[in-house]
């Protein structure tokens, strides 16, 4: 039964008293029925309301904690007065929602203060403009006090109409050192800076990092670096993505969580040995599943080494006829694909509303293409009688995905399989003795010199941006250049191209000349932001530079400055698509060009042939989509290709190649022995193992250039390993069948970690 509501009768029928003489003579707070409340034209707030659902939940849980301010309106019936809400519009809207949800009745008592019409607008303006929100310090203090009372995260979330994640973030801030929280009240520290310091669990570390830092070192990103410099950034590590933070924690690993990042892998880990162990276990488990398919041998690797893969031939799968059901599905999907393509083609380019429809159609086309590719791969099967003579590589891919390379054939097994009728391609012996391949005419390059320069300028800028994020790699790169020169008796006297041009020439102008669209690149934006920062922070006079440098923190300031300067000396522009020294640095940085470059008409398709456009679409989307382009003019095909690849992570091979030029050695510690070895090789007429081609790389079968859907491998470009560029030379541990403590390249800490 509802409580009886007593509504005092207030005489406001007469003319309103002027505000100047009666302001402040408000009536006391009384209760009126909810049904008597109505929106008031005298409310100063006209902006659409927000957060009503959360406020309604709060009122439902705790009641209305603050009264509304109302004035009497005309139109009341009998003793039921009609009141306009001039202050408390959001609370009124929350009550409306509760009434609609049947949580309150029409006679629900609402506390109000009744004022005259003449005062209503002024009071509404005062309440909305003079109200002061809680100080952030007080908010965090309240959260901490509630937690100390034993209140759960869900309880506090409901109380404040916030998500549990928001509550966890605020409680994390509330547990920062009291000294630092005191600075928050004085506006001497920001919430973003507190969030960075909250990565450290102990107050002593938080205070040490803050009070020992100079002004620019107190920027949130540098505070975060100071805390996590010796740890692996889980959001950037492909090995962490492969294993998963949940599995790492379940195995007893500690994660320094970054609650203030929306990345699911946000956090930092220090136990590289445990991560390495989990990677090996997951690879071994995947290898056992593949072994059950009947392959002759299985090898696991933590990184895809194209140089190693190119030493193997490829067993081709056999395409069986489609079943009746599969053929019906294929026909239906093909018809659906054609229908969607026609609808997309019919859209008007001048109709702005057509963009959303084009996006929807493209998503549908991608879904149909994926279904077609999956159906095509089902019909590709391996001959069980041949599988015993071939093997599989199980590898961690560049994005942390599982990559399975099936059908690899050792050199010594190729002849046996071919004698049994198998189709084996890519074996160096077969190509080395193929007279047709020796006399093949020189092919026209895919990318002309100007486009190569444009693309490699983007690659160079992206490497620079990654060096800024991983300054320890910049230090390693500089030492890579200096150490062999300082210790020629150890490394030998070599003459080889390097990715650094230590002539003091800044590469800014050369990059912009090579790629006029570089200014819009995310990599260039990151580099220029750092350039502006150092221009502002470095002393104006060169004479003051050395004293300034000596006073800086070598682990933060100097290392970051070194990374920026090293990036400005990168020499990565080339007019030819061939092995380049900068590929070694790109590999060390785990460079992912999809973060910095997108294929569009302007950046790529307008600069290549129509045949190349079709080849790219066939590889990245589907062969059927490429067939549709053949009927178009080149400009239309380029535009269609841009649409098809809008949501596909594809980049040209020049961005994924990791092959570096051969390093000729003119002498070294064992120069005489080396000369004798070379003489013996020359006498025998072969190179070291008698299997490699004259240019020092494994020969490849040009006909084996299409992706094998049956291989089960997942590639960023769907590029088959036997046609992709090779990686840097393998480490001494790369021949072990599974990763070991030495074999996994994550033993180091900090930005160099995988």
TrEMBL record:
Q: Which GO terms describe its biological process?
A: chromosome segregation
Query: What Gene3D superfamilies does this protein's entry cite?
Result: 1.10.10.2830, 3.90.1530.30
Enumerate the CDD domains for this protein: ParB_N_like
| Coiled-coil segments on the chain, per record | 323-378
Provide ranges: composition bias, Low complexity.
729-741
Q: Where is the chain membrane-spanning?
A: none
SMART domains for this protein:
ParB
The record places domain ParB-like N-terminal at: 30-129
What's an example GO cellular component term for this entry?
A: chromosome
Which portions of the sequence form the region Disordered?
A: 1-22, 661-754
Superkingdom is Bacteria
Q: Which PANTHER family match?
A: CHROMOSOME 2-PARTITIONING PROTEIN PARB-RELATED, CHROMOSOME-PARTITIONING PROTEIN PARB-RELATED
Q: What protein name does the entry list?
A: ParB-like nuclease
Which source organism? Answer: Paraburkholderia xenovorans (strain LB400)
């Amino acid at each position: 039964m509802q409580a009886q509501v007593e509504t005092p009768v207030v005489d406001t029928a007469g003319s309103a008293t002027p505000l100047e003489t009666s302001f402040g003579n408000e009536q006391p707070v009384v209760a009126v029925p909810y049904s008597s409340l109505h929106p008031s034209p005298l409310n100063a707030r006209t902006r659409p309301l927000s957060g009503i659902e959360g406020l309604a939940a709060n009122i439902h849980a705790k009641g209305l904690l603050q009264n509304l301010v109302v004035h009497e309106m005309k139109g009341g019936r009998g003793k039921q007065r009609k009141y306009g809400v001039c202050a408390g519009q959001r609370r009124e809207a929350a009550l409306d929602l509760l009434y609609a949800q049947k949580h309150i009745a029409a006679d629900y008592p609402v506390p109000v203060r009744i004022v005259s019409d003449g005062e209503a607008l002024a009071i509404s303006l005062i309440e909305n403009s003079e109200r002061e929100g809680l100080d952030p310090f007080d908010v965090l203090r309240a959260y901490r006090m509630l937690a100390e009372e034993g209140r759960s995260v869900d309880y506090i979330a409901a109380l404040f109409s916030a998500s549990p994640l928001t509550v966890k973030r605020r409680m994390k801030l509330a547990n920062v050192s009291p000294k630092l929280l005191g600075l928050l009240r004085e506006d001497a520290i920001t919430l973003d800076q507190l969030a960075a310091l909250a990565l450290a669990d102990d107050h002593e570390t938080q205070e040490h990092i803050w009070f020992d830092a100079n002004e620019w070192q107190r920027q949130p990103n540098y505070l975060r670096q100071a805390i996590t410099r010796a740890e692996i950034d889980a959001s950037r590590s492909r090995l962490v993505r492969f294993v998963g933070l949940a599995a790492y924690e379940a195995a007893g690993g500690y994660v320094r969580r970054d609650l203030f990042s929306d990345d699911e892998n946000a956090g930092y880990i220090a136990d590289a040995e445990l991560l390495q162990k989990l990677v090996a276990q997951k690879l071994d488990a995947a290898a056992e599943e593949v072994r059950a398919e009947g392959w002759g041998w299985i090898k696991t690797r933590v990184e895809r080494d194209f140089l190693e893969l190119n030493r193997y031939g490829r067993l081709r799968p056999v395409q069986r006829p489609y079943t009746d059901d599969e053929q019906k599905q294929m026909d239906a999907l093909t018809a659906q694909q054609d229908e969607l393509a026609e609808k997309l083609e019919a859209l008007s380019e001048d109709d702005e509303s057509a963009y959303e429809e084009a996006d929807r159609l493209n998503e549908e086309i991608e879904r149909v293409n994926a279904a077609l590719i999956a159906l095509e791969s089902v019909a590709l099967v391996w001959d069980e009688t041949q599988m015993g003579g071939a093997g599989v590589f199980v590898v961690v891919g560049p994005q942390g995905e599982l990559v399975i390379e099936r059908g690899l054939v050792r050199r010594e097994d190729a002849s046996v399989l071919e004698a049994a009728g198998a189709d084996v391609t890519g074996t160096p012996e077969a190509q080395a003795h193929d007279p047709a391949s020796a006399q093949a005419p020189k092919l026209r390059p895919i990318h002309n010199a100007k486009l190569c320069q444009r693309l490699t300028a983007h690659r160079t800028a992206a490497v620079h941006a990654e060096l800024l994020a991983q300054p320890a790699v910049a230090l390693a790169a500089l030492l890579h250049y200096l150490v062999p020169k300082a210790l020629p008796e150890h490394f030998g006297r070599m003459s080889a191209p390097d990715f650094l041009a230590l002539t003091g020439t800044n590469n800014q102008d050369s990059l912009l000349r090579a790629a006029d669209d570089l200014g819009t690149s995310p990599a260039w934006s990151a580099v220029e932001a750092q350039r502006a920062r150092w221009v502002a922070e470095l002393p104006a006079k060169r004479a003051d530079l050395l004293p300034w440098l000596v006073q800086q923190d070598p682990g933060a300031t100097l290392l970051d400055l070194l990374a920026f300067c090293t990036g400005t000396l990168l020499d990565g522009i080339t007019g030819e698509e061939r092995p380049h020294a900068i590929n070694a640095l790109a590999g060390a940085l785990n460079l992912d060009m999809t973060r910095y470059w997108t294929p569009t008409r302007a950046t790529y398709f307008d600069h290549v042939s129509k045949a190349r456009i079709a080849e790219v679409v066939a590889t990245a989307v589907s062969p059927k989509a490429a067939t549709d382009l053949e009927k178009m003019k080149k400009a239309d095909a380029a535009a269609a290709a841009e649409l098809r690849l809008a949501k596909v992570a594809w980049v040209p091979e020049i961005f994924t190649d990791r092959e570096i030029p051969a390093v000729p050695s003119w002498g070294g510690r064992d120069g005489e022995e080396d000369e004798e070895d070379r003489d013996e090789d020359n006498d025998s007429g072969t190179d070291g193992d008698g299997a490699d081609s004259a240019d020092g790389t494994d020969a490849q079968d040009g006909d084996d250039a299409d992706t094998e859907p049956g291989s089960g491998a997942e590639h960023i470009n769907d590029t088959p390993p036997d046609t992709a560029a090779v990686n840097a030379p393998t480490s001494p541990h790369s021949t072990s069948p599974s990763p070991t403590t030495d074999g996994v390249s994550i033993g180091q800490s900090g930005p160099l970690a995988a």
